[in-house]
Amino acid sequence: MTADRRADEHAVLDRTVREQWGRLMSLLLAQFRRLDLAEEALADAVEAAARHWPSRGVPDNPAAWLLTAARRRVLDHIRAEATARRRAPLLVSDAEQREQSTRVMADPGGVIEDDLLRLVMMCAHPSLSPESASALALRLVVGVSTHDIARLFLVPEATMAARLTRAKKKIVTAGIPFSVPASVDVAQRLDIVAQTAYLAFTAGYAPGSGPDLLRAELAGSAISLTRVALSLRPDEPVLVALLALMLFQHSRRDARVGADNDLVLLAEQDRALWHRDEIEEARALLTRPALRRPLTPVAASYVLQARIAAEHALSPSPADTDWARIVTTYDQLLALQPSPATHLARAVAVAESESPVAGLAALEGIDQSAMRSAGAHRLASVQAELLVRTGDVDAACAAYDEAIALCRNDTERAHLARRRAEVSGQDRSSPG
Amino acid sequence: MKRYLFLIAYEPGGWDQASVEEQQVFVDQHQAFSDYLAQHGREISAAALAGADTATTVRHESGELAVSDGPFAETVEMIGGYYDAELPDLDHATAAAALLPVCYSVEIRPTVAIGQ
To answer: Is B94 within the bounds of a domain?
Structure first.
C-alpha cells in the first residue's frame, strides 16, 4: 500500500461525504425516522470507511457502502434497545422488514431527491430559531462537523454541540415532520433555507470578531448548502439569487487578506487573485429567466445585492467602477429593505461617485443608535476614512478612536489602528 | 399521533367588549378549529378559563405551603383557555392554531408521556 493510494482513498471518502452526506442522512431518516440514531450511525460509518478502505480498497459504490454500514449500525442500536425492553422479536422483525422494502433505494435517484428535500425542509422549519436552523442544516445536509460549525459561528464547541442537541430534541419532541409542506409553504420555507445559508455565509465571510481566517473556507459550506437546495429546486429565484451573491463575494476570499493577515479593502485587492470561474458562474446565474418572475422581498434583495457585487467583480479596476449605478441599486435596496448597514454602504458609494463631502452628508441620515447598539464600528470607520479625504485630520482621528473602541475583530482593529497612525503621522510631518 | 396542548393567550376584556356579530365570528373560528382536529386527529378536551384575576397559585416556599392570590406570571396577555388534542405532527398543530381568532397568541406544547 503506497502513501499515494492511501491519499486517494481519503480523497474519495472526503468527496463522498461532502457530496452525499445529505442524501445518505435523508435516506436513513426516511427509513428509520430516528434522527438520534441516523446521524451517529452515519458518522460511525465514515469512521469505519477511513479504517477499512486503505487496507481493503475503495468499494465500487462508496455512497452505497456508507449507507449499508450506517443502516447496520442503526439496526444494531434498535436491536439493543429492543432487547433492553424485552420486546426484541417484534421490533427487530419490523425494522428488518422495512430495510428489505427500502433496499432498492441504495442508488441515488429520483426518490432520494424527495427525501433530501424533506431533510432540507425539516432543518428550515419556522419553529426553529434561525441560528439553530443554520447550524442544523450545515450538520445534517452538508455534514460539516460540530467543531467546524462552532468555529464558523465563533462559539465554543460544547455550546454548539448543545445547540444542535437542543434543535434535534425539539424536532423529535415537538413533532416537526420529515416531509415536504404544502406547495404554498415550500416557497416560504425556501426563503428560510436561503436566509439560513446566508447567515452561515456571512458568519464566515464578514468576520464579526476574532482572528480566524479559516472561516472564509467554512463559508464555502454555506454555498454547498445552497447548491444542494438549488439542485432540488433549480428555478427557485431566491436560491439562484443567493448563490450568485455568495459566489461574487466568495470569489474574493484569497485577495481579502494580505501577507501579514491584514484586511485588504476592495480597492486595494489584487484582482488576479479573484476566482474568475466563480465570478462567471455568478454572472450566468443573474441572467437566469427565473429571476424575471415576480420575486419575494428576500429574493429581490439578494438580486440587488448580487448586482452590486457584480459591478465590483466585473469592473477591470477600482477606477472603472460604475459608482453611480451602484448608488442607484442601493437606492432600490433601501426602498425594499431599509437598514443602517445598507444606508452606510450607499454612503460609501455616494462618496466614490460624487465626493467625500457628499458621502459624509449621506451618512447623516443613518440611525446611529441602531448601528451603535449592534456594536457596529463601521459607521465610525467610514466617517474617519471620508474625513481623511476632506483633510480634516483631527476629526478623522477622533472617528478612528471611536471605531477602534467599537471593533471586535482583531484583523480589522489592527487595520484601523494602522490607518489612524498613518493619518496622524501625515499630520505631524506637515504641520499647519 | 402526538398529543399537544394548545394554550390560548389573549388580552383580557376582548370577549366582553365584542359585539354579538364579533362574538359569532369567534365561535365560528373555534368551530373551524374543532372541525380540523376531528378531520386530522382527535380532540381530547378543551375549556375556557375564568379570568386570571380569579387564579390562585400554590407553591412550596422553604418547606412551607404558600397559597397566594393571582396567576403564576403577571403578563399583559393571559391564558384564557386550552385545547388538548392529538394530531400527526407540528405542521398540523400549527395549521389548526392558525384557524383560531387572530387576536390570540397560541402556544403549542407537546405533552410528554410519563412512566412508560
So the answer is: yes
When divided into structural domains, chain B yields a total of 1
C-alpha grid cell for residue A170? Answer: 425539539
Sheet holding B2-10, edge to edge: B42-48, B78-87, B2-10, B105-110
Residues A382-404 as b/e (b if ≥16 CB within 10 A, e otherwise) read bbbbbbbeeebbebbbbbbebbb
Grid coordinates of A262: 491584514
Helix (H), strand (E) counts: chain A:
20, 0
ipTM over 0.90: no
- Phi/psi of residue B2, nearest 5 degrees: -115, 155
* Domain span holding position B12: 2-110
A-chain CB neighbours of B94 within 8 Å are: 127
**A17-43 per-position pLDDT tens digit:** 988 999 999 999 999 989 989 999 999
Q: What is the DSSP string of A39-54?
A: HHHHHHHHHHHHHHHH
pLDDT tens column, A251-307 = 998 888 877 777 788 888 999 999 999 999 999 999 999 999 999 999 999 999 999
Asked if residue B115 belongs to a domain, the reply is no
Residue B65 lies in a domain: yes
B96 touches chain A (CB under 8 A): no
The b/e string for A35-66 (b: 16+ C-beta within 10 A; e otherwise) is bebbbebbbbbbebbeeebbeeebbeebbebb
B71 falls within a domain = yes
Rounded Cα gap, residues A198 and B70, in angstroms:
46
Residues 69-128 of chain A whose Cβ lies under 8 A from any Cβ of chain B? 125, 127
Q: Which three cell numbers stand for residue A212?
A: 480566524
First-to-last CA distance in chain B? 16
A235 CA to chain B: closest CA distance, Å? 25
In total, chain B counts a number of residues equal to: 116
Put simply, the answer to whether B110 touches A174 (Cβ < 8 Å) is yes
